[in-house]
Write the structure tokens for this entry.
Amino acid sequence: MQNSGDVVDLDLGQPEGREAGFLHPAIVITAQRILDANPTVVHVVPLTSTIRKFHSEIVIEPDKSNGLNIESAAQCQHLRAVSPRRVVATRGNIGPLNLSQIRETLAVILDIA
């Protein structure tokens, strides 16, 4: 079972346009109460090692708890729903502070803040 804030490797298949594709790291952002009910889709934000300093991206520093090897940016502008079966592996968890920053950014992007 996944947890909110987990850093996972996803098999996203063939990308279209500028979307993330292939085997790609992402952060699970679905609420824990939903994850506990074994949903058929989960919401993720892909990670990139290309740091662009966009306001829609949150930089995550690598550490032992999140399983990242390099500084990465959570691309909130690329929020997507995927089947949990796309999860190939779980690396770690970004923790409540970074998860909160991502959710705040998503609220602005989706105009629900």
Q: What stands out?
A: The first helix runs from residue 32 to 35. Residues 6-109 form a domain with the SH3 type barrels. fold (CATH 2.30.30.110).
